Fold SRPBCC domain-containing protein.
Amino acid sequence: MPVTDISHDLDALTLTITAQFAAPLQRIWDIYADPRQLERVWGPPEYPATVVDHDLAPGGRVTYYMTGPEGERFYGYWNVLTTEEPSSFSYEDGFADESFTPNPDLPVSTCVSTFTEQDGATQAIYVTSFASREGLQTVLAMGVEEGSRTSINQIDDLVA
Protein backbone atom coordinates (compact mmCIF):
# COMPACT_ATOMS: atom_id res chain seq x y z
CA MET A 1 0.00 0.00 0.00
CA PRO A 2 1.36 3.42 -0.94
CA VAL A 3 0.24 5.36 2.17
CA THR A 4 2.95 4.95 4.78
CA ASP A 5 1.78 7.50 7.35
CA ILE A 6 -1.18 9.72 8.22
CA SER A 7 -1.01 12.15 11.09
CA HIS A 8 -2.92 15.17 12.26
CA ASP A 9 -1.81 17.95 14.58
CA LEU A 10 -4.61 19.86 16.27
CA ASP A 11 -2.18 22.55 17.48
CA ALA A 12 -0.57 23.14 14.06
CA LEU A 13 -3.99 22.65 12.37
CA THR A 14 -2.56 20.19 9.82
CA LEU A 15 -3.23 16.79 8.34
CA THR A 16 -0.17 15.17 6.75
CA ILE A 17 -0.16 12.08 4.53
CA THR A 18 3.01 10.42 3.29
CA ALA A 19 2.94 7.87 0.46
CA GLN A 20 5.47 5.94 -1.59
CA PHE A 21 4.71 4.96 -5.20
CA ALA A 22 6.58 2.46 -7.38
CA ALA A 23 6.48 4.85 -10.33
CA PRO A 24 8.62 7.71 -11.62
CA LEU A 25 7.95 11.29 -10.58
CA GLN A 26 6.47 12.36 -13.94
CA ARG A 27 4.03 9.42 -13.91
CA ILE A 28 2.62 10.51 -10.53
CA TRP A 29 2.40 14.13 -11.69
CA ASP A 30 0.48 13.04 -14.79
CA ILE A 31 -2.28 11.54 -12.62
CA TYR A 32 -3.08 14.95 -11.13
CA ALA A 33 -2.59 16.80 -14.43
CA ASP A 34 -5.09 14.60 -16.32
CA PRO A 35 -8.73 14.85 -15.19
CA ARG A 36 -9.61 11.34 -16.37
CA GLN A 37 -6.77 9.82 -14.35
CA LEU A 38 -7.54 12.05 -11.36
CA GLU A 39 -11.10 10.70 -11.35
CA ARG A 40 -9.73 7.22 -10.73
CA VAL A 41 -7.96 8.20 -7.50
CA TRP A 42 -9.81 11.24 -6.09
CA GLY A 43 -12.32 9.81 -3.69
CA PRO A 44 -12.58 6.40 -2.07
CA PRO A 45 -13.67 3.48 -4.28
CA GLU A 46 -17.23 3.62 -2.89
CA TYR A 47 -17.40 7.38 -3.65
CA PRO A 48 -15.89 7.71 -7.15
CA ALA A 49 -15.15 11.18 -8.46
CA THR A 50 -16.25 12.91 -11.64
CA VAL A 51 -14.08 15.87 -12.60
CA VAL A 52 -16.15 18.59 -14.30
CA ASP A 53 -13.56 21.36 -14.82
CA HIS A 54 -9.79 20.92 -14.66
CA ASP A 55 -7.27 23.75 -14.91
CA LEU A 56 -4.17 22.85 -12.90
CA ALA A 57 -2.45 26.19 -13.51
CA PRO A 58 -2.03 28.98 -10.96
CA GLY A 59 -5.37 30.80 -10.78
CA GLY A 60 -7.13 27.77 -12.32
CA ARG A 61 -9.96 25.78 -10.85
CA VAL A 62 -10.77 22.10 -10.56
CA THR A 63 -14.39 21.17 -9.84
CA TYR A 64 -15.65 17.68 -9.11
CA TYR A 65 -18.28 15.64 -7.39
CA MET A 66 -18.17 12.28 -5.68
CA THR A 67 -21.09 9.90 -6.06
CA GLY A 68 -22.03 7.82 -3.03
CA PRO A 69 -23.36 4.27 -2.95
CA GLU A 70 -26.99 5.51 -2.94
CA GLY A 71 -26.39 7.93 -5.83
CA GLU A 72 -26.01 11.02 -3.66
CA ARG A 73 -23.47 13.59 -4.86
CA PHE A 74 -20.92 15.55 -2.84
CA TYR A 75 -19.44 18.59 -4.61
CA GLY A 76 -16.05 20.19 -4.18
CA TYR A 77 -13.51 22.47 -5.78
CA TRP A 78 -9.84 23.38 -5.84
CA ASN A 79 -8.65 26.94 -6.42
CA VAL A 80 -5.14 26.30 -7.73
CA LEU A 81 -2.50 28.50 -6.09
CA THR A 82 0.82 27.20 -7.45
CA THR A 83 2.19 24.52 -9.76
CA GLU A 84 5.77 23.40 -10.23
CA GLU A 85 5.60 20.47 -12.64
CA PRO A 86 6.42 17.72 -11.83
CA SER A 87 7.32 18.32 -8.19
CA SER A 88 4.46 20.18 -6.46
CA PHE A 89 1.19 22.02 -6.57
CA SER A 90 -0.95 23.80 -4.01
CA TYR A 91 -4.60 24.72 -3.86
CA GLU A 92 -7.50 25.77 -1.68
CA ASP A 93 -9.84 22.83 -1.24
CA GLY A 94 -13.47 23.43 -0.41
CA PHE A 95 -16.93 21.94 -0.31
CA ALA A 96 -19.58 23.28 -2.65
CA ASP A 97 -23.17 22.99 -3.80
CA GLU A 98 -24.23 21.51 -7.16
CA SER A 99 -23.34 24.74 -8.98
CA PHE A 100 -19.85 24.66 -7.36
CA THR A 101 -20.60 27.68 -5.19
CA PRO A 102 -18.51 27.32 -2.00
CA ASN A 103 -20.38 25.99 1.02
CA PRO A 104 -19.66 28.50 3.84
CA ASP A 105 -20.78 26.00 6.49
CA LEU A 106 -17.86 23.64 5.82
CA PRO A 107 -14.12 24.34 6.14
CA VAL A 108 -11.80 25.45 3.35
CA SER A 109 -8.26 24.10 3.61
CA THR A 110 -4.97 24.85 1.91
CA CYS A 111 -3.28 21.79 0.43
CA VAL A 112 0.32 21.35 -0.68
CA SER A 113 1.23 18.20 -2.62
CA THR A 114 4.97 17.59 -2.99
CA PHE A 115 6.54 14.77 -5.04
CA THR A 116 10.18 13.70 -4.76
CA GLU A 117 11.91 11.05 -6.87
CA GLN A 118 13.76 8.37 -4.92
CA ASP A 119 15.60 5.69 -6.93
CA GLY A 120 12.93 5.50 -9.63
CA ALA A 121 10.09 5.60 -7.12
CA THR A 122 8.19 8.68 -5.90
CA GLN A 123 7.56 9.87 -2.39
CA ALA A 124 4.49 12.06 -2.02
CA ILE A 125 3.78 14.30 0.94
CA TYR A 126 0.33 15.85 1.15
CA VAL A 127 -0.05 18.58 3.80
CA THR A 128 -3.47 20.08 4.42
CA SER A 129 -3.73 23.16 6.65
CA PHE A 130 -6.88 24.49 8.26
CA ALA A 131 -7.78 27.94 9.57
CA SER A 132 -9.21 26.53 12.79
CA ARG A 133 -9.18 23.50 15.05
CA GLU A 134 -12.92 23.15 14.39
CA GLY A 135 -12.32 22.93 10.64
CA LEU A 136 -9.78 20.15 11.07
CA GLN A 137 -12.01 18.32 13.55
CA THR A 138 -14.95 18.58 11.13
CA VAL A 139 -13.11 16.76 8.34
CA LEU A 140 -11.64 14.23 10.76
CA ALA A 141 -15.18 13.41 11.91
CA MET A 142 -16.19 13.04 8.25
CA GLY A 143 -13.57 10.28 7.88
CA VAL A 144 -10.92 12.18 5.91
CA GLU A 145 -8.08 9.97 7.14
CA GLU A 146 -9.53 6.66 5.98
CA GLY A 147 -11.06 8.23 2.86
CA SER A 148 -7.69 9.71 1.89
CA ARG A 149 -5.90 6.42 2.56
CA THR A 150 -8.23 4.40 0.32
CA SER A 151 -8.20 7.12 -2.36
CA ILE A 152 -4.42 7.42 -2.53
CA ASN A 153 -3.93 3.66 -2.36
CA GLN A 154 -5.80 3.41 -5.71
CA ILE A 155 -2.78 5.01 -7.40
CA ASP A 156 -0.90 1.68 -7.28
CA ASP A 157 -3.41 0.03 -9.64
CA LEU A 158 -3.37 3.02 -11.97
CA VAL A 159 0.43 3.05 -12.38
CA ALA A 160 0.85 -0.74 -12.53
Summary: The two ends are 13 Å apart (CA to CA). The mean pLDDT is 97. The chain has one domain: 3-159.
